[in-house]
Amino acid sequence: MRSDTDTPLKPLELPVSEDWHRDFSADTPYGVFVTDERGRYLKVNPAACRITGYTEAELLEMHFYDLAPKTSRTAAELHLRAVEQAGHSQVELPFRTRHGELRWWSVSAIRLSGARNIGFCKDITDTKRAAEALQKS
Q1: 13-30 as b/e: b if 16+ CB within 10 A
Q2: Average pLDDT, rounded, for the chain
Q3: C-alpha angle 78/80/84, rounded to 5°?
Q4: Would you state the pLDDT for residue 18?
């Protein structure tokens, strides 16, 4: 006889309380961005605000592409399309902060139920700059 625990669940099917999600996203050092299928921000955590320099209210009025420099919009579009088609994507992309500074982040995103995506972003600017400095020396 099989029990319900014999069948593995996909991670996104596991029930997660709203409190757990709020606590997790508030405490992580990674920027957490929940978007709709078109890339419009639905939820962001404090680290997302700190990394980008925008307030939560400002980010919730923005789109994923709004942070991408014009030269990397195609790469940002391909990333979003990969999440839609494959269910996940990982990429390094440049982004612009609220004050116009060009920085880099590593983005890992997955598709959620209900036509939503969640992306975890880590600012990797210092690592990128160190690698460039090593190449030049």
Answers
A1: eeeeeeeeeeeebeeeeb
A2: 85
A3: 110
A4: 59
Tell me how far apart the alpha carbons of residues 35 and 32 are, in angstroms, rounded to a whole number.
10
pLDDT-derived band at 115 (thresholds 50, 70, 90) equals: confident
pLDDT tens digits, residue range 66-92? Answer: 999 999 999 999 999 999 889 999 999
105: number of Cβ within 10 Å? 22
Q: Which domains does the chain have, with CATH numbers?
A: 28-136 (3.30.450.20)
Dihedral Cα 96, 98, 101, 104, nearest 10 deg: -40
d(CA 69, CA 34): 20
Rounded to whole angstroms, how far apart are CA atoms 59 and 48? 9
Provide the 8-state DSSP code for 8: P
